[in-house]
Amino acid sequence: MFKVLVSDPISDLGIQKLYDAEDVEVVKQSGLSEDELVAIIDQFDALLVRSQTKVTEKIMQAGTNLKVIGRAGVGVDNIDLDAATRRGIVVINAPDGNTIATCEHTFAMLMAVARSIPQAYKKTVGGEWDRKFVGVELRNKVLGVVGMGRIGSEVAKRAKAFGMNVLGYDPFLTEERADKLGVKLCTVDEIASQADFITVHTPLTKETRHIISTPQFALMKQGVRIINCARGGIIDEIALVDAIDKGIVAGAAFDVFEQEPPAADHPFLSNPKIIVTPHLGASTIEAQENVAIDVSEEVLHILREQPFKNAVNMPQVPSNVFNKLQPYFNLGEKIGRILGQITIGAVSEIVVNYAGDLVDVDTAPLTRNIVMGVFANKLEGVNIVNAMHLAKTREVNIIVNTSYTTSTFTNLVTVTLRTKKEQKTLAGTLLSSFGQRIVQIDQYPVDFTPEGNIMLISHNDKPGMIGRVGTLLGDNQINIATMQVGRQEIGGSAIMLLTIDKAAGNEVIKILEELPEIVNVREMTV
Questions:
Q1: What's the pTM?
Q2: What confidence score (pLDDT) does residue 319 get?
Q3: Assign residue 185 a region: left if phi > 0, alpha if psi is -120 to 50, beta otherwise?
Q4: Greatest CA separation found in the chain?
Q5: Mean pLDDT computed over 285-294
Q6: Category of 491 on φ-ψ map: left (φ > 0), alpha (ψ -120 to 50) or beta
Q7: How far is CA 524 from CA 186, 335, 453, in A?
Q8: Is the dihedral of CA 292, 297, 300, 306 positive or negative?
Q9: Catalytic annotation on 260?
Q10: Residue from 150, 158, 210, 279 carrying the catalytic annotation
C-alpha cells in the first residue's frame, strides 16, 4: 500500500484517481511547518503540493520512503530540485493543465483592451453615463503572437475564429507548422511593424527578457495594443509607458509584472490606458482541477513503476551506463548550448554522431543532454527528461549515428543543427590532460575549452582582419583572452574564434558586422 500526503489545498475532484486506487492511501493535512513535515514525512511514498509548501532538503532527508513529489501546477520554485535529484526523488509538474485557462484570460484581456471595458465599468458604477468609449473590432485586424507554444497556439486558433490575421514568432516555429496553424511566420520586428494587437507567450529567459522594448515600439504603427499574460519582463514596462505617452500604444493589458506584487507607485497602476490583473491566468476551477488530475496520474505511474512524463529533474540511469557517460554529460550539453546560440532560424533537425568507445553503451541519456543544451537558451524549464518531448512537439527530427572509428580521438561527439536558413556543426571530445575540448566548428578544425564568453566571426580572408577586430574590441573595453583563426584557402571563407573577458553585447556586434569583409558575428555564453 502506497501512502500519499497532500500538504496543500488541492481539489478532491482533481485527486479522485488517487482516492479510487486500491493500492493508495491519501492523507490530506495542510498548513504544516517544515518541522511538522519532517516529523511525519517518512511514512509517505509521495508528496503532493501547490505553492504553499516549501519542500526543502531537510524534508527530503527525513522522507526515507519518498519516491515522488508532485507539484499541482507549473512552477517548482518551492521544491529543492537539486536535493531531490541527489536523493533519487522524481519531481513532476503539470505544464498542460492551465493552457486553456491562460489562453482564455489572454483573450479576455484582449477584448477588454479593445473596448476599454474596465474603464467604462469604473465610470458607470461611479455614477457617470459616459458613452465616449469608442473601441475597435477584432475582425480583419492583425494579431502578432510572440511565442507559439501550447498557449500561443491556442490563442492563435481563437483569433482566427474572430476573423483576425495572425502573425507568429517562435525560435522553433517552422514554416510547415505555421502553415498548419494558419499563421504567417515572422520575426519579432516584423510583428512589431505590422500588428494591431501583440500578445506574448514565451518563457522569461535571457533571450526573451525585454524582447519588446524601445526599438520595437519605434517600429509599431500608432494605435497598437499590447497584452502580456505570460511572464513579467518579456515586455519592457518603462518603454511601454513611454510608448503610451507618445501615442504609439493605444492601450495595454497585463496579468504579470516584472516584480510581483508591484509597488504601490508602479506606473501601470495609475495609467488609465493600462488594464491590470493580479496574475490570474491559471486561476479557473477547471485549471486547478486539471493540474491536480495530471499530477495524480503521474504519481500513480511512478509509484507503480510505469512510464511517466513531465518529470523536471534527472531520471535514473543504470550505473554502468552512467559511469561511462557521466564525463560526457556536461560536454554534450555545452555543445548543444553553443549550437543553439550560433545557429539562426527555427530548428528542424539535430544530427548526433558518436564515434569511438561511446558506441558500446546506450547513448540515449547523452543525446538528451545535447538536445537539452540546444533548447536551453530558448525554452523555460527544459531538462533531460522533457527535452526529447519538447523536440517532438516542435517537430524537430533527432537523428543518431554511431561509428567505432575516429580519425584522431578515442571518442568524438559531433552534432549538426539544421534550420531552414543554415546548418552548423560542432565536435567535441574529452582529453585526459586538458578536459573538455571543442575540436571542430563546421569545416574548420579548432581547439578550445567551452566556457566563458566566446565570439565566432565568419569573414572573408583578407589582410588586416585580425587587427581591425582587435582594435574595435579594445576601443570598447573588451579584452581578448585567446584567439584562433581558420580558413579553407587563401582569400576564401575564414573564421576567427575569440574568448573574451566579458560579453560584447548587441551594439558591439552590430559595429563588428559593419566592418568590410565580415560575414556575421555570433556570440555565445557557456
A1: 0.73
A2: 67
A3: beta
A4: 83
A5: 92
A6: left
A7: 24, 11, 6
A8: negative
A9: yes
A10: 279
- What is the sign, positive or negative, of the torsion defined by CA atoms of 272, 278, 283, 284? negative
C-alpha torsion 383→388→390→391, nearest 10: 130
Query: 190 catalytic, yes or no?
Result: no
Residues 6+ apart with CB under 8 A from 453: 499, 500, 501, 502, 503, 504, 523, 524, 525
Buried b (16+ CB within 10 A) or exposed e, 164-179: bbbbbbbbbbbeebbe
Q: Which is the catalytic residue, given 22, 128, 131, 260? A: 260
The SS3 of residue 76 is coil
3-state SS of 171-204 is CCCCHHHHHHHCCEECCHHHHHHHCCEEEECCCC
Chain segment 394-413, per-residue pLDDT in tens? 899 999 999 887 767 888 99
End-to-end CA distance of the chain: 46
| Cα gap 41→61, rounded to integer Å | 9
- 136: closest CA among 197, 211, 203? 197
Catalytic residue among 50, 71, 201, 231: 231
- Catalytic, 368? Answer no
